[in-house]
Design goal:
alpha/beta; Rossmann fold; 2 domains; 7-stranded parallel sheet; 13 strands
Length: 331
């Protein structure tokens, strides 16, 4: 039977790729998309997609979106913003989507895109992380804490529901249409507010090659199109419901990132990163973006064999290829 799929956040960095993949799949007959900003699917050549402007904080709008869907895909989420704003949208909005899907008569499947950040940045994390690890989050990092909290809300609302629930936990998502990593490098976000010598060091001054502090950690990337193919697999019910780690083959270092963007990588002892992150916790009125320093305190590498084995998913792009595609797309 051809599926009708409702998607929150179809205009985001994952959403665009996800809708393209759903449009291309013969098992999907209709896509219902909802986001806050105006958008015309016809501008992208999409023929199956119907778009409505709405907010996941509006329960009535969410109820209307999911009522006629066989599968609900929840992608709408704030990654960068104030702690208060992101909590309101990410937690209250996600609760609306989960509760509306449970309450609706038609949906039989719910697919939620969480994150590697849900595991939390903990010293005792296994390397690599498997789906058996609990999504503990990190209280000092708003995005991590909220991703873990959303998964808890999801479990509470769906444990007794007649609903197949798939949770995807991608690593850092990148690619030509997902350049958030590039747009939030230190000199991009903080350059104008820093003293001149620091600005010159970071490369916030035109003509000066920037530096990236390198604590020696490696991390994973996943191409937005590979996340989209995993989403389609879950939408179509490949494999049993549950959580799945999603990442490209291989990993990259800060040195790889620096080389790709034309910066210098400067070795920094991990102890310095830990001390800096502890100072961030103590300082009042620190921008929420500064909390991301906690993400480089400890390795966060995931095992993706479950997704390959049970979803029959395989990434088409390695981490290094994804990095190169992101840099090319960000030019």
């Amino acid at each position: 039977m051809a599926l009708t799929v409702a998607v929150t956040g179809p205009t985001g960095e994952i959403g665009m790729a996800a809708v393209r993949a759903l449009e291309a799949d013969d098992r999907v007959d209709r896509v219902l998309g909802m986001a806050r900003r105006p958008f015309d699917p016809a501008d992208h050549g999409w023929r199956k997609t119907e778009y409505r402007q709405g907010d996941i904080l509006d329960r009535a709008a969410v109820d209307a979106l999911v009522a006629s869907a066989d599968v609900v895909v929840h992608l709408a989420y704030i990654i960068l913003g104030s702690r208060g704003e992101s909590e309101r949208v990410n937690l209250a909005g996600s609760r609306n989507v989960f509760a509306a899907t449970v309450a609706a008569e038609r949906p039989g499947r719910l697919v939620y895109t969480s994150s590697v950040a849900a595991y939390g940045y903990h010293k005792d994390n296994a390397i690599p992380l498997t789906e058996e690890a609990l999504p503990r989050g990190s209280s000092e990092h708003y995005y991590s804490a909220q991703k873990a909290a959303c998964e808890k809300v999801l479990r509470e609302l769906t444990d007794d529901a007649d609903l197949d629930v798939y949770v995807l936990r991608p690593s850092i998502v990148a690619g030509p249409e997902a350049t958030i990593l590039l747009r939030n490098l230190p000199w991009e976000k903080l350059g104008d507010s820093l003293p001149e010598p620091v600005r010159r060091f970071l490369g916030a001054v035109p003509g000066v090659r920037p530096f990236l502090p390198d604590p020696g950690l490696h991390f994973q990337l996943v191409h937005h199109d590979d996340v989209a193919s995993a989403l389609v697999a879950a939408v179509c019910g490949h494999g049993p419901p549950g959580a799945y780690n999603i990442a490209g083959d291989g990993d990259i270092s800060v040195r790889d990132l620096a080389r790709a963007i034309g910066a210098y990588a400067v070795p920094v002892p991990p102890e310095v990163v830990s001390l800096t992150s502890e100072l961030v916790d103590l300082l009042p009125y620190v921008p929420s973006q500064a909390e991301w320093i906690h993400a480089v305190r400890h390795p966060m590498l995931m095992d993706t064999s479950k997704a390959r084995r049970e979803l029959h998913w395989k990434p088409r792009h390695t981490a290094l290829e994804t990095l190169e595609a992101m840099v090319e797309g960000g030019d």
